[in-house]
Amino acid sequence: MSELLARDFFRALFHTGRRMTQNPVGDPALDWAVGALHDAAEVLTASGEEAVISVVGDAFYLGRDVLANTSTEFDSLLQAMKQRRIETITIRPEATASDLADLATLVAGWSDDLPAGGTVLLNERSVSMAEVDVQPLSTLRRAYSESLDALRGVSRSRTLHLVEVLDVVDAFLDGAAADPGSSLLMATVHNHDELTYYHSINVCLLALSLGRFIGMDRDRLRMLGLSAMLHDVGRVVVDEAALHNKGRLSNEEWAQVRLHPQEGTLAILSATGPGQEVAAAVALEHHVRVDGGGYPDLRGRRPHLYSRIVAVADTYEAVTAHRPYRPARTPSKALRLLLEGAGTVHDADVVRLFIGMMGTHPPGSLLRLEGGEVVVVVTTEGAGRRGIVVREGDGSIAPGDRIIEFAADEVAAHLLPSDVGVDPGSLLEVVERHRATAV
Q1: Is the model's pLDDT at 100 over the cut of 80?
Q2: Average pLDDT of the segment spanning 224-243
């Protein structure tokens, strides 16, 4: 069964659990969330058979199929289920909205069990490794999950442990992040309800890719990665409503947002060891423009090179991700926006290098070719371009395991994930399997 359908269910489960903690019973937003969860469960059981979701190792499975990207995007649900010793969830075709709401309440930590005899069952059966198609998650995916845990720990305790963050950066450097294509594909993973965490990790991956591209040594890459991972750490003190406001921010909310560089700087300085102070500088400077504008007001001070790199990666990631106040834009539009701001908003040399690394069709781009096929770009090395076919020329869904080469003049249109129903990060394992077989 398509991972896309499973992701719809997990997204609805996640949002319903969040609404349970924020909205009183009878609130229209909560009723809508429960309705969306019920609809998603009906799709999962449309065949008339039960849908069995299991936790095996560090991943979700639906039946025998691993849900690699879902496991990353909804890592908080995965950790919550493991903590509550939920090994399987069985959803019956007749699952009721009430029972599904009870499931969301349980996973969100607001109850201890489900009512007996319901249409959603917990741990009704144990799933063995032999019953699923076990596919170990990539090193990069595991490091991504570890970085989420590290950032959530900062949010919970308001205490920074830089050793944990550096361990994650080392994992990125030692693992699949050494390959720019995999790293940039992974940087397309988002969760809108944990925006700060996913954004920070994606900016780290983008910054490390650029650092490798320009030839930084390992020590410099570690400090760049640390700085990028923590550039927005001050946002944990910003009011949640301001971060998710769908309209224009009030003066008070905007004032809170503008304080996050200083708050992040203070948090990092209290935790840094010798040689790590640059991370505090990046937290302070990543919204400072090269023409002296931006915030905070640091006129007369030229931002550190790492700050200028992180600022470019920060803008690219923010533009290509969906935000509560605007839809996502394509990678090509993000690169065009960076180019327009080169020399005023951003360092012109860093922008030029970033665009040189990404190419005209960056890894993770969704393209429609002249033949009608839709591909996710996985590499743009030199003059060659390779992509995974996700829709055939007739519009049908492709198996998702075929990689083809294409030329720039074959590109007919740039698309968004919402246009296609595919998240580029979900194809990371396909890329790594192809790389392994090619060696």
Answers
A1: yes
A2: 80
